[in-house]
Amino acid sequence: MSLYVIGIDYGSDSVRALLVDTSSGRELASAVVHYPRWSQGLYCEPGRDQFRQHPQDYLDSLEQVLQALWQQAPAGSSSKVVGLSVDTTGSTPVAINSAGVPLALLPEFAQNPNAMFVLWKDHTAVAEAAEITAAANDYAARAVGPNYLQFIGGIYSSEWYWAKALHVLRQDAAVRAAAYSFVEHCDWITAVLTDTTAPADFVMGRCATGHKMMWHQRWGGFPPNAFFTGIDPVLDGFATRLNADTRTSDQTAGRLCAEWAQRLGLPRGIAIGYGAFDCHMGAVAANVRPGVLTKVMGTSTCDITVASPELLADKPVRGICGQVDGSVLPGMIGLEAGQSAFGDLYAWFRDLLSFPLQLLGQSLTPAALEALQAQIIPALSLEAAKLTPGQTGITALDWVNGRRTPDASQRVAMAISGLKMGSQAPHMFRALVEATAYGSRAITERFREQGVPVDSIVVIGGISKKSPLVMQICADVWNCEIAVLDSEQSCALGAAIFAAVAGGVFPTVAAAQAVMASPVCQTYQPNAVKAAVYDRLYKQYQQLGDFVNASVAVESQGAV
Ligand SMILES: Nc1ncnc2c1ncn2[C@@H]1O[C@H](COP(=O)(O)OP(=O)(O)O)[C@@H](O)[C@H]1O
Ligand SMILES: O=C(CO)[C@H](O)[C@H](O)COP(=O)(O)O
């Protein structure tokens, strides 16, 4: 009998479920459900960079996506499922009480955004991130302890766990009084399915802890309590309450509990693997290996590669989102980088252009308005494709949502130079696409400068399939071949690969990948002439970036 597994991929807006046959890697069925509260814009304040997700959204949508999956799947599929694993966005933590319940699931906190998951792109904790960076540098300078940021790029980001926890604790006395700990989405949902949410039973995955929570084997887990209380006494006890015994995603976290077996229509007791972040599992579906950089290109980008422990030894890679033993593949160092906005930069421009439509288009139905807006990026892409590199005269930065890497900073902003009366919307759009490609190139160059080889690039995520224009400009700017992965659900497929190992179908991740990883469906080749022009234009991008960095540094010193 064929054995099946399920990969669950919690993205920024929706959750996807994928059913895969472990004997062939065939994707038998998939389904997507959007988070109901999030879709209405609840609990978010984009003007303040506040993006919160209700835990009930994750629970409701999980149940719904499995119901939708069974509608697509061949009859009798559910009884053949032997494992399930989950990936989520991150760092996306929530405050829990001493019973392990996310505070927003309690009636008194049900409408409180500080009691909800703080989504990866929530940038309300910029000040707290800077304090954590300063504290780590100070600790190391005074030789009180190691630099706890050395294996996560040297700069703590506002997108990460401790900055978010500190921000929420400071902001909200009621949450502070009730919070026992904070848990990441990928660890919590795994614990829900295995009925291990109680803090005494709670075990976390290596991915979230290593990349976002300052866990490292060098210091035996998390930094000491004194490090955190030195930043703010409100953090007292939070690190000591965390279990330092973290696990890689090939390991079995537990068995599907009776309640969730019933809610999901799955056999009770099937294996549940440890959770991880979306891009890390996507990279596994893309056969990541040393020298191969996998990029999830969507709203943001997440760039993942792996290196052998021998190559990196304990050498820190500056300015990236971490190097963590086993965060992607067991036995390898997983390295993460990325851009805080990629497709989001195009969406920003689309929204800018369509603002007057919203004001003046009262005669349009909401559906008609939405249909019109949906045509803006494709129409701009067709026109922008007619332009040649350098023709626009415009240089733009991709930092509209801050900079994730290289060298995290949410204080930097986007800038555009070279606008003239002749600059039309397609010119601007092409400049924005080029900006995102330059931002990506900066990451690859940083990896190479720091001794991490990048010989080839495999891309996954929505944009890799939606936009030949973006992909060709990337190939030309990066001056390298780009392979596009066939699977439409690469992150969920990666989760399914881990589920197959956790479920005992394969002894190792490599064995599961050999059968289940996705093939490449298309490649883009760089054009040598265009690549030479882009080499020159990339320097203008770097100069504009230097200017913005310098302005931010001056502002931070209070000189302006
Ligand atoms: N034709 C297109 N060309 C370029 N970008 C696009 C196009 N259509 C949508 N996008 C961008 O794709 C992004 C969504 O990517 P996707 O991978 O589908 O979602 P997610 O990042 O949530 O997983 C949006 O930011 C949007 O601006
Ligand atoms: O930073 C991350 C992982 O480390 C986020 O999970 C990721 O960038 C979110 O991506 P998407 O919008 O494609 O779900």
Instruction: Compute the number of strand runs.
Output: 20
- Poorly predicted runs are none
CATH superfamily of the domain at 343-487 and 522-559: ATPase, nucleotide binding domain
Which molecules are bound besides the chains?
adenosine-5'-diphosphate, ribulose-5-phosphate
State mean pLDDT (0 to 100 scale).
96
Beta-strand percent range? 15-25%
Keywords: Arabinose catabolism, ATP-binding, Carbohydrate metabolism, Kinase, Nucleotide-binding, Transferase
Catalytic activity: D-ribulose + ATP = D-ribulose 5-phosphate + ADP + H(+); L-ribulose + ATP = L-ribulose 5-phosphate + ADP + H(+)
Domain Carbohydrate kinase FGGY N-terminal: 4-284
Domain Carbohydrate kinase FGGY C-terminal: 295-502
3D structure, described in words:
With 560 residues, this protein is α/β, with parallel strands linked by helices. The chain has a domain at 343-487 and 522-559: 2-Layer Sandwich (Nucleotidyltransferase, domain 5), CATH 3.30.420. Helix content is 40%, strand content 17%. It is built from 20 helices and 20 strands. Strands 1, 2, 3, 5, 9, 10 and 11 form a 7-stranded mixed beta sheet that branches. A 7-stranded mixed beta sheet has the order 14-15-13-12-18-19-20, sandwiched between helices. The protein has a two-stranded antiparallel ribbon with strand order 4-7. A hairpin with a 3-residue loop joins strand 1 and strand 2 (14-21). The longest helix is centred in the C-terminal third of the chain and has 29 residues, at 528-556. The chain is globular. The protein starts with a strand and ends with a helix. The mean pLDDT is 96. Adenosine-5'-diphosphate (ADP) is lined by residues 11-13, 298-299, 343-344, 346-347, 377-378, 381, 461-463, 466-467, 470.
